[in-house]
Amino acid sequence: MKHTYNIQGMNCGSCAAKVKSALEDIPEVVSAVVDKSTDTAVVTMENHVSLEKLDAKLKALDAKYGISEIQATNTVIDQSTEDKTAFDLSKYKPIFLVFAYIFGVTLTIQLVNGGFDLKEWMRHFMAGFFLVFSFFKMLNLSGFADSYMGYDIIAKRWKAWGYIYAFIELFLGIAYILNCCPLATNVVAFTVMTISIIGVLQSVLNKKKIQCACLGAVFDLPMSTITIIEDAIMILMSGYMILSLM
Questions:
Q1: Is there a contact between 207 and 224 (Cβ–Cβ < 8 Å)?
Q2: What is the CA radius of gyration of the chain?
Q3: Which of 37, 127, 139, 171 is the most exposed place for a label (fewest CB within 10 A)?
Q4: What is the pLDDT, as a whole number, of residue 33?
Q5: Closest CA to 215 of 203, 198, 227
Q6: What are the pLDDT digits (tens) for 127-175?
Q7: pLDDT band at 215 (very low <50, low <70, confident <90, very high)
Q8: What are the strands of the beta sheet with 2-8, ordered from one edge?
């Protein structure tokens, strides 16, 4: 079931992201597409949600927001189409390119050094990962924090975590480059990535159609198994490094 609503009170893209996160936080809501240019939201629901409940949710977010229904159409969602959309690899081109560049550069460093040291390559790869991913988050830090609130288990309750998380990634990248306090660095990386993957798993298992904030608010990446794999890779790498250092 899809409903199209008019949204009042949005002043910028950040407002649209907040409204989207608030609507998608309602259990019956599958996805919400919020368009600031038209001040509209197209909300897909598993079960009907009253306009009063939607309005109360937005008012709890900020009293300036309001919602009114401008049209409603019942549609049968083609699950196969939904799945194709969710796993359309072309949508993940930015993240594939980022991984390819980091992998290529770090592998080249090993080859230039005349051999392949697995632990050194992993350290360089993780340095590149955290630095690049923190860079994209820093481009629109507030937008990232708003998007991260939509699924992260800590950011949902404490928005400041989104800002802190971006800087943790930055400092982890620097620590990996300098090989500074390797055990502590890997423990922090393992911990924050494990916390992050919990929210990702919940969103994917609940089939929430929300934006993945791994590359900040710059790219509109849908949340899917790709995001789980990305986080799992970093958890496995940091876990392996911890075991090798003990």
A1: no
A2: 20
A3: 37
A4: 84
A5: 227
A6: 999 999 899 888 888 888 887 887 888 988 888 988 999 999 999 999 9
A7: low
A8: 29-35, 40-45, 2-8, 66-73
- Answer yes or no: are the C-beta atoms of 29 and 41 closer than 8 Å: no
Q: pLDDT value at position 216?
A: 63
CATH code given to domain 2-77: 3.30.70.100
The domain locations on the chain are 2-77, 83-245
Q: What pLDDT score was predicted for residue 88? A: 57
DSSP state of 191: H
On the CB side of 76, CA atoms within 13 Å amount to 2
Angle at 138 between CA 93 and CA 193, to 5 degrees: 70
Q: What is the pLDDT of residue 214?
A: 67
Yes or no: say if 36 and 18 are a contact pair by the CB < 8 Å rule: no
- pTM of model > 0.85: no
Sign of CA dihedral 227, 228, 230, 234: positive
Joined together, the tokens standing for residue 205 give: 């298992």
CB under 8 Å to 7, separation ≥6 — which residues?
A: 19, 34, 39, 40, 41, 58, 65, 66, 67
